[in-house]
Design brief:
Strand order of the largest sheet of chain B: 1-2
Order of helices and strands of chain B: HEEHHHHHHHHHHHHHH
Structural class of chain A: alpha/beta
Radius of gyration of chain B: 25 Å
Largest sheet of chain B: 2 strands, antiparallel
Number of helices of chain A: 15
Shape of chain A: globular
Strand content of chain A: 5-15%
CATH superfamily of the largest domain in chain A: Periplasmic binding protein-like II
Largest interface: A-B, 35 and 30 residues
CATH topology of the largest domain in chain A: D-Maltodextrin-Binding Protein, domain 2
CATH superfamily of chain B: MetI-like
Oligomer: heterodimer
Largest sheet of chain A: 8 strands, mixed
Distance between the termini of chain B: 11 Å
Distance between the termini of chain A: 79 Å
Number of domains of chain B: 1
Number of domains of chain A: 2
Structural class of chain B: mainly alpha
Shape of chain B: flat
Amino acid sequence: MEEFMFKKSMRKPLALFAAVSLSAIGLTVPASHAASQTIQVYISADTNIQDLWVKTLVPAFKLAYPGYDVNVTFDLHGDHDAQETAKITAAAVLHKDPGVDLIDGGFTTTLGAAGLLYRPTPGLIPNIKDLNKTVLAAGKGGIPYRASSVLLAYNSTNVPTPPATLDDLLAWIKAHPGKFTYNAPNGGGSGYSFVQTVVDKYLSDADRKTLVAQAAPDLESKWAEGLETLRQLNKYTYGQNGTYPANNAETLKDLATGLVDMGTVWSDQFSSALKAGTMPANIKVTAIKNPSLTGGASYLGIPNSSINKVGARLLANWVLSPAAQNLIVGGTLNGFPVIPLNKLDPVVTAAFKGVDILNLRAGYLSANANDLKSKWASTVPGK
Amino acid sequence: MISLLRNKNEEGSFTTKGEGPSLLGLGLSLPPLLIVLVFVGLPIFIGLTFSLGFTTGPNRVIAIIGQQIHKKNHWWGTFGAYNDVIHDSRFLGDLSLTIVVTVLSTTLVLLLALSIGLYQRLIGGRKAAVLVTLSIVPLFVPVVISAWAIHTFYSGDGFMRTLFSHMGINFPTLTSTPSAIVIGTVWTSLPFAILMISSGLQAIPDALIESAKDCGASAFRIVVNILIPLAKTPIIIAASFTSIGILGSFTIPFFLGPNQPTMLGVEISNFFGSYNRPQQSLVMAFIVFAIASGIAVAYVRSNIKSARESDRL
C-alpha cells in the first residue's frame, strides 16, 4: 500500500511543480487568432492558380502591407468544394468562425446565391468602381478578380486554317478521325466548355441566359440534341472509342506530344505552358463563333461569418489594383484582367489579345452545370 | 477478448473464473469497442439515415447544399435515392465492371502469389528470393505514382506501343480500358498477398512434405492436398483483403479506366463531387459496403473455423 502513496516529503514540491507548470501553460496559450494580422485564403482551382497566389500575389501583397500575414490553403480541382461549402454554411448557421477569410473557387457563386457572402461596397473596397457592373452583379457578392476563356488550340503545322465556327469544327472533327479531343467535363473546365457550347448550339438565346442565371431543371430536356451530337462524335475523337482525357492537363499533354491536332484549352493554362516551354511554338489558339466557347470571371468571396473581414477586404482591394492586375496578366498566369486596360502597364497588355471580358459567354449556374456533367456521363462516353 | 471472459478447464467444458464474466476483461476491451462504435458505427448510421431521406440534425447542412435530395415521406424514410441509383443507366454497368474486375484481379493475384510462394517453398534458392523481393517492391511505391507510371507505359505513345512499332506490330493502346485497371490493381495488390501466402507456406514443416514424397506423392498432390489446405488461412486473408481493397478502389480506375462504365469508387466520387448528388453517392457506398460485408462474413467464418480447429475456441 505504501508504495502507491507518495512519500509525505514529496507532496509539497509536487504540488508546487504542478501549480507552476499549469500557470506556465496558461501563459503560453496563444491569444486566440491575432485577428488583424493573419488572412486565411482558401483556393480551389488548378495548380496554375495556386502558383499565382503562392508565388506571385501573396509575396507582393506582403511587400505592400508588411504587417499582414497570408495563409493559403489549396484544394486541387475543387475535390472538396462540397465539404468546404458545407463547413462555411454550418459556420454561418452556428455563428462560428468558418476558418477562412477569402475564397477563390468555383463555389463562391453558390455561396453568394445562398446569401453567405459579404456584399462588397465601394466605400470599403474602393477599387470595385473600376469593375464591369454586369460581371460584378453576376457574382452575387463575389468579387471578380481575373478572367479567362476557353479557346480552340490547334497544331498550325498540320492545320493551316483552323475552323472559324462550331459547325466548321464539328465537320473538321468528322473529316479527321482521332485528331481532336476534349476532356471529360467533370474533370476540367476546358472540356466542360466544349460540351456546354455544343449543347448551347441548339438552344435559343433566352434559354441560354436562363441557364446561366438560375437553376432551370425543366430546360434540361433541351440538351438532348447537343448530347446526341456529342455521342456521335465518339468514333471521331481521339482513341475513337468514346474515351476522353480525365482533366485539363491531359488535353494539354496530348496536344504537346502531337497525339491530337486540336483540343479545347484554357487561355491562361495555354499561355503559361507556351511560356514555360512545355507547349511547342507551333501550337496556336483561336476563338470560334456561333456559339463561342465559354469563359468568364473568377470570383473572390468573403464569407459573412469571417472573423477577419478587415484583412480580407484589404487583400481583395489590393488584388483589384493595377499593381496586382499587372501581375495577373504579365506573370506566369497570363490571365485576363478585370479592370480597364488603360490602367495597366502598356508593355504587359501589348502582348495581350485584348479579349473584351463583357463578351465572354458565361458558363451555366453551378446547379445546371452539375446536371450537364451528369447527363454527359450517362449519354456520351462509351456509347 | 472471448478468452478473457471465459476459461476452458481440463475437461474441456467452459467454466468461468469467479462469479461471472471477468469485469477486468470487459473493461479493458470496452474502450476500443467504444471508439469503433462512435467514430465508425455512428457515422455509418447517420449516413444510412441520410440515404433514407432523414435530412434534419447532422444531415441538415448537406441537405441544403446537395441536389436531387429526397426527403422522407414515411416514418422509416424513403427509397427515392435508392430508386434513383438502381434506375440510373450508369449503375448496372458500373456494378458489373466493379464485380468482374474484383473477381478477376483477386484470382490473378492469388494465382501469382501462390505460384511464387510455392516456387519459393518447394524449390527455393536465390532466384526465388529475388522474385519474392521484386514482387514486394510495389508496396513501397505510392499508388498515384504507380497508376501514372502504368498509364505512361501503356498509353498511345507509351513504351509498349513504341517498342512494338519498331517491330512493325500495332500494339493496342490499353489505357482507358478495363484491362489496364486489372493490370494496375494486380500490380498494387500483389505485395500483400505474396507476404501473407509465402509466410503461410514457409510455416508448413518440411517433415510433412518429406513424408509425402516418401509415400510417392507427386508435386501436384503435395501442393493440392498438403500445402494449400494447410495454408488456407493466409490464403483466405489475402483473398478477402485484396478483394475488399479492389472493390472500393479509386485511384487506379480513375487514371487507367474508361470514363464510363467505371468502377463504383470513381462513380461515388463523381456523384458526390462533380454532380453534387451526395444522397445518391451514399446509396452506392452502402451497396459497396454490403458486398464488402459479404466478403468479411466469409473471412470471419473461416477465422472462427480455424480457431475451433486449433482449440482456441
